[in-house]
Design a protein that fits this description.
The structure is a homodimer of 401-residue chains. With 401 residues, chain A is an alpha/beta fold. Chain A is 32% helix and 19% strand. The first copy, chain A, has 14 helices and 13 strands. An eight-stranded mixed sheet of chain A has the order 9-8-10-1-11-12-2-13, sandwiched between helices. In chain A, strands 3, 4, 5, 6 and 7 form a five-stranded antiparallel sheet that branches. In chain A, helix 5 packs across helix 9, helix 10 runs parallel beside helix 12 and helix 11 packs antiparallel against helix 12. The radius of gyration of chain A is 23 Å and the shape is globular. The interface between A and B is medium-sized, with 32 and 38 residues.
Chain lengths: 401, 401
């Protein structure tokens, strides 16, 4: 779907759309023939909602493709993740709530260890503690580069973010991580002429960092990768005509939402119940609500089948609070699958339900992978869900006469 | 599907394909959990045909998009409606059976009311009667423009069609309707250099019309919009190698078919039975038959659930006459949904069946929205149906070695 096309169809309305994203929702049975995490969860409210919904399986990026969190979210947010790429540096900056400007070039940084000849001995500097990271980042913040604002921010352990701010900086830069030990980190090269100034600045930064860190073994050097600027991406207001709100406990998801012009609703606390309280409080101020549940993914990554099912049950218990608000459209889905069996993101399409007064309900009273596979939405690209939601919210006019 | 690619695969055959389009076929239950119009209709013949067919749900344009009649038909005719656009002026001209030439620029015209200062007081001239429209159109026909043929044709009430005929005229013109009252109609502007001559001609026409209509309150002015030429679109012969016939009672659908090079088969009478008589009479002369049923849509637009179901029953009663002719491929579907519940076109995908001797039948003995959602065609773009029909008619050869 081309946004220029869709934009022409958007009409104002008073309706409200809620998108619940359970991170890494899709799963697998532990034993062949068994149930998935979602199928084994006790979730009477989701099942009742499914009975009034159209069901399907959503491919976040494309069949067979395992998405990272960025592309996974872009898909269910209604964007083509193959068209809009979010660089690693940008994602890392979003993850620490750094407010990236439109021309900022962000990179993911690692502290690392080098020997007397400058050859890498540990690409992660022995996984130093975050406290030491903070101390070293303060050192790096003393670096001055000609005419450009420099930001260095601790992420966690051996990871930090570097941001250069100046109008017109290019982000087409090669990485300094050679991806193996026994060789020195690589110099940064400009991959197009517009990025030559950025390359010079970054190489100056690395050179000064090397001197500042010389006696700070094991963290006596840095590596930088994933140089990127914010993608030029239409906002929710531009693309869909929506005043959109984001409710998320983890910074990265708030950052992704901010990239799309969503406003962040403050969540007091960290539980799913706290997120629903934020939803209730923000209800009258927005047309669209993105509510993110992180812990399904964390449990999947940990291989904890039962805990993942339990997080789904926790969400289920809050669902009546949403339905009391009488939303016009509710989408429940995920940004990708994270089966506990695989302990990682996977390529499996994600079960999704679309509820509204005007949806052609499939009459399947179960929300689960196999139930959704029988649904009328079929197996669809995740990005197609937003036009369907807008249509059900009566926010799209007719195309053509 | 790219027509250049498909064309290379087309091979001659003696087989016959029939496409039955029930306008606005797709529906919704009136009450949650109830049946749709199609599901509640008594249609033993369609159900029996479904049992021998592959079933699916077709998206005329794209998920969530509500199509007008033009894009809806292009989709089920096998064309990408996002690639081939039919302008409002063209559709209006087709709707009165006007035989548009390839370079004709057509516009939809409204009679309107202006005050002494030329400001709009009624954009529809008090919805004047068609008889007065005919009289005023005769006045407008006296307008002569330098070197260009001018056609003015009554549509209905306050609506008319203007067509300018000259080689090389451009159609990139702004509209004169300001979409509100209290301001004067806008002059036409050329939106590209190729349309500057058209803009001058149209402005001359409007100026002369103003003088001719000066004392004809409430219809003392005109507005023009939807300037368009016929789209450059491959014909059924070019795209699919088919000698195609169109059987339709309403002019606009004959016009759409004519745009694609279909030949119009005369229908004596206006009923569905009359259309099947025309089908029988034309049977030996064509490879492909498009048979259009209008009244499903009209009933849906009127919010008349029972009447819509009854029109489907009327079609069902005629179906044996088609099957007696032993068609090789039959598609039954619609150009879009028009649920009586919504009283308008909608975005819901349209139930479709594809019958042939070689189809992989789903063995589902019901033609309805939920039955089709379980079918093996899944939820597919409507434009994919034509290649499937051609294949089943053994009119496509192998791709690649």
């Amino acid at each position: 779907m081309d946004f220029r096309f869709l934009k022409d169809l958007v009409v104002p309305a008073q309706t409200k759309i809620v998108l619940i994203v359970m991170d890494g929702l899709g799963g697998l049975p532990i034993e062949a023939g068994g149930k998935t995490e979602l199928e084994s969860a006790q979730k009477p409210n989701l099942d009742a909602l499914a009975a009034q919904s159209a069901l399907g399986l959503a491919d976040p990026v494309a069949p067979g493709i395992t998405p990272g969190s960025g592309p996974g979210h872009l898909g269910i947010f209604g964007y083509d993740p193959l068209r809009y790429e979010i660089g690693r540096g940008v994602l890392e900056a979003l993850g620490i709530d750094f407010d990236l400007g439109p021309d900022d070039v962000a990179a993911r940084g690692n502290f690392c260890s080098v020997d007397a000849n400058g050859n890498l001995t540990d690409r992660r500097a022995g996984r130093i503690a975050t406290e030491l990271n903070v101390e070293l980042v303060n050192l790096l913040r003393t670096i001055k580069l000609d005419g450009v604002q420099v930001f260095v921010e601790t992420v966690k352990d051996y990871r930090f973010v570097l941001v250069l701010r100046e109008d017109g900086l290019g982000d087409a830069l090669s990485e300094t991580d050679p991806q193996r030990i026994g060789v020195p980190p690589l110099p940064v090269r400009a991959l197009n002429p517009d990025s030559e100034r950025s390359a010079r600045l970054v190489n100056q930064f690395v050179e000064q960092a090397r001197k500042l860190l010389a006696d700070r073994q094991p963290a006596n050097m840095i590596m930088l990768r994933g140089f990127a600027k914010r993608p030029a991406i239409p906002s929710y207001a531009q693309a869909f005509g929506l005043r959109a709100a984001a409710i998320a406990v983890y910074p990265m998801y708030r950052g992704l939402a901010r990239l799309l012009g969503m406003q962040i609703v403050n969540v007091v606390g960290e539980t799913i119940a706290d997120e629903f309280t934020a939803l209730e409080q923000g209800w009258s101020d927005f047309d669209f609500f993105y509510l993110h549940v992180k812990k399904t993914d964390s449990a999947g990554e940990d291989g904890d089948f039962a805990r993942k099912a339990h997080v789904i049950e926790e969400l289920d218990a809050q669902l009546p609070r949403l339905m009391t608000l009488k939303p016009d459209v509710v989408i429940v889905g995920g940004d990708h699958s994270t089966p506990a069996l695989l302990k990682s993101h996977s390529w499996h399409p994600v079960p999704v339900l679309v509820y509204s007064q005007y949806v052609r309900a499939d009459g399947i009273a179960e929300y689960g992978e196999r139930a959704c596979a029988r649904g009328s939405l079929g197996c669809l690209p995740a990005k197609d869900l937003m036009p369907i939601a807008l249509a059900n919210a009566q926010r799209l006019t007719k195309f053509g006469a």
